[in-house]
Amino acid sequence: MTRNRGADLISTWFGCGYFPVGPGTVGSLGALAVAYGLVAYADWRPLFFLWLTAAATAPAIWASDLTARSGACKDPSHVVVDEVLGQWLALAGATALNWKSWLGAFLLFRALDIAKPWPIRRFERLPGGTGIVADDLAAGAVAALVLFGAGCFNLY
Questions:
Q1: What is the sign, positive or negative, of the torsion defined by CA atoms of 65, 18, 14, 97?
Q2: Which of 4, 38, 92, 102 is deepest in the core (most CB within 10 A)?
């Protein structure tokens, strides 16, 4: 199968996935860089990241699926758009955007994405790009709920 440059660009989050060490973490940091720009220059609020995640999910599944099939690998490490969506979803749970909530969203999401506790791991079983993206969306949703709960108790 031939490679699709558009799918590769999206699935690797503009090359973040090619970083030699910790490409998933680099993808998450790339997501936060975009998010920070949207907050700083477009006055975005946390809930806007829920809508951005929803809008980007179908293209992410498409790109992840094509990239995985072209490399004959179920979930290639250089596909990091799933980390981007999960990170944005985690950030959507913040009740306020400050350095603590940014750090909390990052650490919670990365910990859940790496550990993949039940039921997050089960989403990997879904076929193709859907499975690649779904487990990270689940990790992002759990991180968002924890972050939201912490914010309700003024922990950040």
A1: positive
A2: 92
Look up tokens 């980390």; give the residue.
Answer: 83
Q: What is the DSSP string of 77-95?
A: TT--HHHHHHHHHHHHT-S
- pLDDT value of residue 72: 73
C-alpha span between 63 and 93 (Å, rounded): 26
Structure tokens at 40: 């700083």
pTM listed for this prediction: 0.95
Between CA 63 and CA 66 the distance in angstroms is: 5
Q: According to the model, what pLDDT value does residue 44 have?
A: 97
Q: How far apart are CA 32 and CA 152, in angstroms?
A: 22
User: Quick one: which of 15, 22, 93 has its CA closest to 53?
Assistant: 93
Instruction: Give 34-88 pLDDT, tens digit per residue.
Output: 999 999 999 999 999 999 999 999 999 999 999 999 887 888 999 999 999 999 9
Our CA dihedral for 22, 85, 137, 69, rounded to 10 degrees, sits at: -70
Measured distance CA(53)–CA(109) in Å, rounded: 14
Domain boundaries, the chain: 5-152
